[in-house]
Design brief:
Number of domains: 1
Radius of gyration: 12 Å
Oligomer: single chain
CATH topology: Alpha-Beta Plaits
Low-confidence stretches: none
Strand content: 15-25%
Length: about 70
């Protein structure tokens, strides 16, 4: 697994996980519980991890979302 992005934005996480799943990329969000415990200061972002084999596809999806203003 490789890190695709880090964020505390729940909207971005929701959109990204849905978009990745729609293209068959099995992504995992790490550090959710730790982030919630320290959520008041946003010190610990959640990490979106994807399989190494899907990294290129996942980066294209993230980039397209950024270009459309969704990410």
């Amino acid at each position: 697994m490789v890190e695709l992005t880090r964020t505390n934005d729940p909207v971005l996480l929701s959109w990204l996980m849905h978009a990745l799943a729609g293209d068959g990329v099995k992504a995992v969000v790490l550090d959710t519980h730790t982030s919630i415990l320290e959520g008041s200061i946003a010190a610990i972002p959640r990490r979106v991890m994807v399989p190494k084999d899907d990294e290129a596809k996942a980066r294209v999806i993230l980039h397209e979302g950024e270009m459309r203003g969704r990410a």
